[in-house]
Amino acid sequence: MRPPSSSPPSPSPSLWRDTDFRRLWAGQTASQLGEHTTLVVLPLFAVLTLDAGAGPLGALRAVGQAPILLLSLLAGAWVDRWRARTVMVLTDAARAVALGAAAVAGLLGLLGLPALFVVAFTVGALSVLFDVAYQASLVRMVRRDQLVRGNSALEGSRSAAQIGGPALGGALVSLLSAPVAAAAGALFFAVSFVSLRRIRRPESVPERVAPVPERPELAAPVRGRIREGLRFVAGNAWLRAVCLASAAFQFSFAATMTVYLLFLPRELHLTGATVGLALAATGPGALLGSVLAARLPGRLGHGVVLVSAAVLGNGALLCVPALYGSSTATILALLAVNFVFGTFSQLVNVTVMSVRQAVTPDGMQGRAAATITFVGMGFTPLGSLLGGLLAQEWGLRTGLLVTAAGMMLSPVLMAASPLARLGRLLPVPREEPRPTE
Q1: How many CB atoms within 10 Å of residue 433?
Q2: Distance between CA atoms of residues 419 and 348, nearest Å
Q3: Distance CA 44, CA 321 (A)
Q4: What is the pTM of this model?
Q5: pLDDT below 50 — which residues of the chain?
Q6: Residue 261 CB neighbours (<10 A)
């Protein structure tokens, strides 16, 4: 009889040898490029082609962001009960059709602001569903010991899209036309559709909870699970602080970006390509921020890193209202500001994610993330509307200064919360709450 082997288990195979993972990665990469290109193309379409003012631009951005408020919590609960790949394929097809129709209507001169609002809302709603689904799809596709590498590859694609998407969108609008740029976004979603459709690995439908007479809340599992997530986040001091600081940041940032997208072409007289280049500088900064996030919190303390990085990143945007003209010095200053903002914003994002994951039990991770996204991002439509109103009433330079100053409320809230007292080691999670009886 052969003795049992004492050799260590063989390492898991490389994900890049997995054809289905490569197809998921390629589809997600194309989708992220389409999404980040569209985020620049639609506002520039309104400003440069339809001559939209501050108010309509703020409303357009608010309409595109509204699905975050309306659908985030539901998307998390829905995707848990559907095949994630089906959700991704359907949302890719629908976004390609929506942007393709907008491109054709724009080329024929038939696309006005009302139709652009419909396109922005449709693409935003479908993007919320896709973003939740691709994260769930990875968990269902790879082994648990491959999740870190899989997430690293997908997040690397997202950072690359943040770099290339805005620059590509701005360049296409400037060199060709806004309708052609919208068609490019549709093409990216079509490529994603084809790649994801080629995945062959079976994906089982997650189990549905059957209602029990003694447990009436199980008759509506989606509502019950959403309530549990809301209660858990509200009852945790660290997560409450994350929600408040995130809401303050996202509200002010949405207002700032509405004015910013008007300030660059109209006050500084920059072309669409230059606007895209300036926005793309946040991408390399985000890559540097991710590297710093792996080292600084363990050396300096998580609380110190969170507060100081938020002050430096948000404070950098206060420099933009001081810029004048479209000289080389102005463009270099914009690139530097966006690079600094991208670096420290990503450092805050990754550190906050580590805190959230550390204090949340495994069975509550998805709902805690969805709840924080809902609270943090839910105010962005109102912020976009406020930014448009301030730019219209007070002027672009003053409006940008006020909205950028509002972003400093986020580090103030963190400094006054238990987050600031976090040290080098993260706290352990509390016991996972039981379902409400």
Answers
A1: 14
A2: 12
A3: 20
A4: 0.67
A5: 1-10, 207-220, 432-437
A6: 23
